[in-house]
From TrEMBL:
Documented EC number(s): 2.7.7.64
Top EC class, one word: transferase
Family statement: Belongs to the USP family.
Pfam families: UDPGP
MF terms (GO), sorted A to Z: UDP-N-acetylglucosamine diphosphorylase activity; UTP-monosaccharide-1-phosphate uridylyltransferase activity
Source organism (scientific name): Castanea mollissima (Chinese chestnut)
Lipoprotein is among the record's keywords: no
Alphabetical keyword list: Nucleotidyltransferase, Transferase
Protein name (database record): UTP-monosaccharide-1-phosphate uridylyltransferase
Matching SUPFAM superfamilies: Nucleotide-diphospho-sugar transferases (SSF53448)
Length: 613
């Protein structure tokens, strides 16, 4: 025993020279495991000596020293290429940023051509039909690691109600929509289809535990727990200066400050989890990525998936007409002076400078249509699994990163606060070869996009005519979309009234909601509505069954229809009652729960007709 200890101590002495630049580390080396010593070497070689400046003598705070290396090991293993590669890339990107280098240098932007869909026409119906057929070969991936600082909500965003008429939560809506697609796709398949569509949720330390708790306390909203897999993203190290010196946590000198790396992490996580291969072996063909708070999303999914399958797109991004300066990226064709081209999202803060730098002195402005000529990226991506696996096997899922330091002054030598590298999932096509089939699909925003991102105060300041992207507008958009869809299938839905909630002027349509299994596609809704029905503006209608048929209904009040899947229910005749009303509340009124307060209204359930079957 004694001789082994002496041997290893003498080995350590021989090796300890590497730490001569960090005497405080050198004194503590005998506390470290061989793996930790390797990590220490890497830190010194990458110019991180300062991390050990505050280290105490052996015997003091030894547990903290070990915890420091646990953190370094985590940061190292969760980044493709390890921490050394992170620091190297950071130095390069910080140098480019200091030099004011434009990441799009040499590229000229132009408006790309994509598939533009019109809701409800034959083309749309055919794409939806194709999309539903393909859905049994799809897997869904929700990126939900973001805290939503712009929204300022204390809980996780997927736990917010998408609308408060039924109180359906975002996560619930997503799961019920995937299950409805699964059923519809299997029914079309006509074989003994037992497909369970896989659903991955990317979480982070900020959201992981609360996402599990939400799923478990709601029995996974009807999904089989084995269908759902959570992948947690790790944060990345913060950087203190242009030399990419890692930032020491001010609250604990044995920790490195960390911040989120962005939704681009999803690709590396899917790759390292091995799940893509499992999907491929199971015969899956598509991976659909989506974000945490878009209550309209699944109205767009069947048609978009149909476009991917028909056009054989390796990458298909969903887009909506974009208002200039709206905080969503613009899908742009970039042509390089050397002939290279790519169709890619240019993030909202980069589009304006890029346009100005390339001969468009007005920058990001609306054209004669009243919209930016660049379609707005809503960050819903459909990737074909085979080519996706081929690509990320090469890259390890690493996505091109960027850095956005806030400099103290024009010398760009120091930062106001530490920064870090970030990456975005929509930058995946940046490494693809020119032969890759990269396309996009544009749909109306009323149908496809109503995220909940802004807090009431910021939403109220959004320039007139631009979308609020608030809890208020997100909920109202669901009622508007459902009303417009019912109008298209022949229901006379009354015009909306304009009301102001939390300082935002919104159209209030009848509060019409349905479960995804009732109306997944336009054709299905059309099949379930016949005769001549009317719905007044002050009405509320909730459809919970699958086989509910509206026939000559005249609704002026609140009607709730709940039916088991097998029951065929016909809803007819006049229904009139006092109904449900909207009552204004102020977002500052803390006596009201936060998830209601951020909308600026609550629903008073005065009188309703309930039909249960
Ligand atoms: N997210 C993570 O899972 N992890 C992270 O580290 C960060 C975020 P934001 P953002 O469609 O509306 C995006 O913050 O990044 C999740 C596109 O980049 O809501 O400002 C997070 O939980 C932009 O091009 O959005 O902007 C959430 O689900 C535009 O398309 C998602 O990532 C815009 O979204 C997005 O995070 C949009």
């Amino acid at each position: 025993m004694a001789s082994t200890a002496t041997e290893s101590l003498s080995k350590l002495d021989l090796n300890a020279d590497f730490a001569s630049s960090a005497p405080n580390l050198q004194h503590n080396l005998h506390l470290l495991s061989p793996q930790q010593i390797e990590l220490a070497k890497m830190l010194l070689e990458t110019g991180q000596t300062h991390l050990f400046e505050h280290w105490a003598e052996p015997g003091v705070e030894d547990d903290e020293k070990k915890a420091f290396f646990d953190q370094v090991a985590r940061l190292d293993s969760s980044y493709p290429g390890g921490l050394a590669s992170y620091i190297k890339t950071a130095r390069e990107l910080l140098a480019d940023s200091k030099a004011g280098k434009n990441p799009f240098d040499g590229f000229t932007p132009s408006v790309p051509k994509g598939e533009v869909l019109t809701h409800g026409d034959d083309n749309f119906i055919n794409f939806e039909d194709m999309g539903v057929k393909e859905a049994r070969k799809a897997a869904f991936v929700l990126v939900a690691g973001g805290l939503g600082e712009r929204l300022g909500y204390n809980g996780i965003k997927v736990a917010l109600p998408a609308e408060t008429t039924t109180g359906t939560l975002f996560l619930q809506n997503y799961i019920e929509s995937i299950l409805a697609l699964q059923d519809a796709s299997c029914r079309l398949a006509q074989d003994d289809c037992q497909t369970k569509i896989p659903f991955v949720i990317m979480t982070s330390d900020d959201t992981h535990a609360r996402t599990i708790e939400l799923l478990e306390s709601n029995s996974y909203f009807g999904m089989e727990p084995t269908q759902v897999k959570l992948l947690k993203q790790e944060k990345v190290a913060c950087l203190d200066d242009n030399d990419a010196r890692l930032a020491v946590d001010l609250r604990n000198k044995y920790r490195i400050q960390t911040k989120p790396h962005g939704h681009g992490d999803v690709h590396a996580l899917l790759f390292s989890s091995g799940i893509l291969k499992v999907w491929h072996d199971a015969g899956l063909r598509w991976v659909l990525f989506f974000q945490d708070t878009n209550g309209l999303l699944f109205k767009a999914i069947p048609a978009a998936l149909g476009v991917s399958a028909t056009r054989q797109y390796h990458v298909n991004s969903l887009a909506v007409p974009r208002k200039a300066k709206e905080a969503i990226g613009g899908i742009t064709k970039l042509t390089h002076a050397d002939g290279r081209t790519m169709v890619i999202n240019v993030e909202y803060n980069q589009l304006d400078p890029l346009l100005r730098a390339t001969g468009n002195p007005d920058g990001d402005v609306n054209c004669e249509t009243g919209y930016s000529p660049f379609p707005g990226n809503i960050n819903q991506l459909i990737l074909e699994l085979g080519p996706y696996i081929d690509e990320i096997t090469k890259t390890g899922g690493a996505i091109k990163e960027f850095v956005n330091p806030k400099y103290k002054d024009a010398s760009k030598t120091s930062f106001k606060s530490s920064t870090r590298l970030e990456c975005m999932m929509q930058d995946y096509p940046k490494t693809l070869p020119p032969s890759a089939r990269v396309g996009f699909t544009v749909m109306d925003a009323w149908l496809a996009y109503a995220p909940v991102k802004n807090n009431p105060e910021d939403a109220a300041k959004v320039p007139k005519g631009n979308p609020y992207h608030s809890a208020t507008s997100g909920e109202m958009a669901i009622y508007r979309a459902n009303s417009l869809i019912l109008r298209k299938v022949g229901v006379q839905v009354a015009d909306p009234v304009v009301q102001v909630f939390n300082g935002q002027e919104v159209e209030v349509w009848p509060r019409i909601t349905w479960k995804p299994k009732w109306g997944l596609t336009f054709a299905e809704i059309k099949r379930k509505v016949c005769g001549s029905s009317t719905i007044s503006q002050r009405s509320t209608m909730v459809i919970k069954g699958r086989n509910v048929f509206l026939e000559d209904l005249s609704l002026d009040g609140a009607l709730l229809i709940d039916a088991v899947d097998d029951a065929e229910v016909k809803v007819r005749g006049p229904v009139q009652n006092k109904g449900w009303t909207l009552e204004n509340i102020d977002y500052k009124d803390t006596s009201v729960p936060e998830e209601l307060r951020i909308r600026g209204f609550k629903i008073n359930k005065i009188e309703q007709l309930e039909k249960k079957h």
